[in-house]
Structures are given as structure tokens and as C-alpha cells.
Write a structure and sequence with these properties.
Strand content: 15-25%
CATH superfamily of the largest domain: Transferase(Phosphotransferase) domain 1
Strand order of the largest sheet: 1-2-3-4-6-5
Helix content: 25-40%
Radius of gyration: 28 Å
CATH architecture of the largest domain: Orthogonal Bundle
Number of helices: 14
Order of helices and strands: EEEEHEEEHHEEHHHHHHHHEEHHEEHE
Distance between the termini: 41 Å
Largest sheet: 6 strands, antiparallel
Number of strands: 14
Shape: globular
Amino acid sequence: MSFLLYPSRERAVFPDGKPLLWRLGDYVAVYQRPEFGTTGALLARRVDADGTEHEDVLIHQLPTSAALAKSSASVFEEEWRRATRLSHPNILRTLDRWLDTPPEPESGAPRPLFFQLVTEAVAGEMLSSTLVALEAKGERMPVPLALWVAAQVAHALHAAHEATDAQGKNLGVLHRDVAPAHVLLTYDGGVKLSGFGIAHTAVRLMSGPIFKHVGSQPPEAQRKGGGQVQVDRRADVYGLGVTLYEALTGVDPFRRPLDYDSLKAAMSGDAPPPSHHRPELPATVDALVMRAMAPRPEDRYATAAELARALEALRTAFTPADGREELSAFLRDVFREERIRARTRVPSLSDLLARAAAEADAERARQSPPPASTREVQGVPTPPVPPTRFVSHPRRMLLYGGFLLFILMGVLANVAKTRERFVEEVSAVARSGQARAVSCLAGARERVRVLLQLDGTGHAEAKVEGPLAGTVAGRCIEEALTGLPWPHKRGWPVTVEVALDGV
């Protein structure tokens, strides 16, 4: 992730490398944490005006378009207030927020807004990065530990689902993006669920998928037309079931070679039981996971609390050991001690500033060549090299110019013919993909306009326009068309319009 910060922000030191050391209101951004969650984050420290340093925090940034700027601020404020009502040991606390407005562009274009959410910072690893580290070592997460971690996440979800406002009215909080990238495992053996106030704000402010992680999208979230999808707490139960599946097997249950097929599998619930990838898993684990991620909401656990009880009962059958101690020892076995020490002992800002300044000075010294008069070879000064003089004959230049013009005209003619053939090939591939794309309409009697942009390297981006834009059916069409074997000609971008008629 590229964390965008505008030049108007006050900065202390900005070397070419890390640390960042940007001043953001009451905070100084120290390190970039792109692996944190699905949006990335900055590790920052709250600093008073007199330089007194306080606790470390994480800053998450949510950009939105200028077209929604007027209504976006109130939406963000509402979601932030809902997130601050969540209080549970397994939920990453939301501390602060602010709305960042960059300077007016010289072109006079509307200014986008940047919502910045501040949460507590804890030392640990995301479940997603833990699974990647285990895969690199050819290992799997212990079954009792995976069940215990999932139980802690279930407790967090239930607390969020039951959260109320000051008058005792249920806030209706849903996470909407339960995935390994939002489960934080701390080095002292804790489990924190992050992403509250982020996923739902993104839903309300931006077009596109409601669930950022393909596996976290329950089948009932399919949309045949425009508008928001109404889902309940069982959608988060489904997301936790998929997360537990990945923790146990290291495999995304809906991952397919093509993104289009992955989306289709997630919509239909087409996934083998976990024991298919890990044969030693007992049938009781298979039954729990497959029930949590059942395609029909009524077949799942009714609440996250019910799922938590089932997880704890199943874990007890494996071992009565303390989960916190087991998790802490597990993380220290998986990750190098240097990495853990670096994340648990962040230096003071004065040390970071001195280190950054020294690195910047060293880099400038390396990039600045010595003056020509001081260059020496074995102690002997090198004499300056006289400039090269080019003398041309007018008649010879005229001859060369005509010859080059003749060659250029031939090249341009050949390029035109080649481009025409390339466009024909692109059109043929687009026609071949229409049948697959039409299947996404699922009986809708609508005419859909799709714009395809090819960057000349075989990569295509599809954008559905009209009522289906941003819907599940629209994304299904986009995945179907972008997954086609597009021809490529480097440096030749092409835009193709595809019209689909429902049946």
C-alpha cells in the first residue's frame, strides 16, 4: 500500500528511506505498516507541543472522492462514534479521528477528503502474515491454537453486535470484513480484531465490493441490482468461519486460478472441508467450520457467542492449556527474535531523527560526485576533456534527412496496419467473452454497457456502467472479462466497449 500524505503536512525529516517522521496533528508518523489490515496503517506516536512523547498509535487512512465530500464527513463522524462505543479486550480500541483536507489544486479541481482513524497500537503480527511465515517454513498452525484464536475473535464480534448507544439502543454494528488481515496476534498472547469503523465507512463512502476479502463475502450478499445489501450478524459468523478455515489449512477455500472463478465459488459456497487439505483434522472440526460458513444464513450459528461456545468446547477436547501462553510461545517460535524486539521497542523520536539525518547526509555524500578539477587517477590530476565539435555538410544533411523521412513513412504505415490487426484481435476476444459475462446477469433483463481498458501488456480493466455498476453481478461481469486471454502489444493501450443483453 502507498500511504498518501500531502506536502502541506508538516514534516520533521523526510529521508529517502525509513523512518517517515511526518507530523500529523498531535502525532508523528514513525513507520509504515502496509501489512496491517486491508488498508495498511502508519505506526505513529502522540507528541505534545513541547516535545513530550506519549503512547504509540496506528493511523488508518480512508480516501474518498471529491464528489462525495459534502456528505462524507458526517458519515465518517457517525462511524467513528459507533467504533468508540466498542469496548472489549479482543477489539482494537478506536482513540481518535480527524478529517484531512489537502491544499487546493492549482488546476482548480475539487479537493478529495482523507479520513484518518487512530487506534491503539499493540506489538504483534497479523494472522495473515503469520500464515505466510508458516507456509514459508512448510508448517501449519496447531489445531487447538487456531480454535482458541477463532474463539477470541468470536467473543469480539459478539461484543460488537451487542454494543448499544447511550440510550441503550443497539447500534447494529457489523464488521463486514472478518479476514486474517484484520486479526492481530500480540506477542504477549493476546488477540485483537481490527477494522471496526473502517470497513463500514468504506461501504458507505465508496462504490465497489462491500466485503474487501473475497472469502468474507457471504452468498446472501449477492445483489441483482443497485442499492445496499442488507445482511445481519450471521455474515460476520460466515467471515470468521472462512478465516478459521484458512488458519487451519493455510488455504483460501475459494481460491481458484481465475478471479472470476473465485468469485463464483464464493457465491455458491463451493469449498471442500478443511480435512481435504489437512487429513489429520477430525470430523468435529470439519463440522464446525462448514457450519460456520454454510451458504444459507439459517444453517449457520445464529450468533457469534454460540460459535464461541462451540469453539471453546472443541478446543477443550484437544487440550486444557492456557491459550495466551501457547500463542506467545508460538509467535516467538515462528518469527525471529530481532523482528519481535524491533516491534516491541520503538526508539525515541530524538534517536530516530538523529539516525534519519545521518542516513540522509550519507546518501547525499554518496550521490554527489567530486568536482572535475579534483578527479585523480593514482594521484595524477586528469586533464579536462575538450568538447567534441561536429561539422556537417549542408548537402549531406539534406540527403540524410530525406532518407530518414522515407524510412519513417514506411515504419508508420507498417505500424498502422499492425495496430489495425491488434484491434481486430482484441475485438475477437471481447466477443468470445460475451457469453461468459452474460451468465452473470442471472436472468436480469437489462442491457449492460462495459468499458474495457487494455494497457498494452495483456492486462485489462473492466468497468460496468449503469444500474449494475458496483453490484455483485457487475463485479462478476468485470471479473469474467478481465480474466480473458487478451492479446498484448506493449505501448498500445486500447479501449473497447462491450454491450451485454440479459435474457
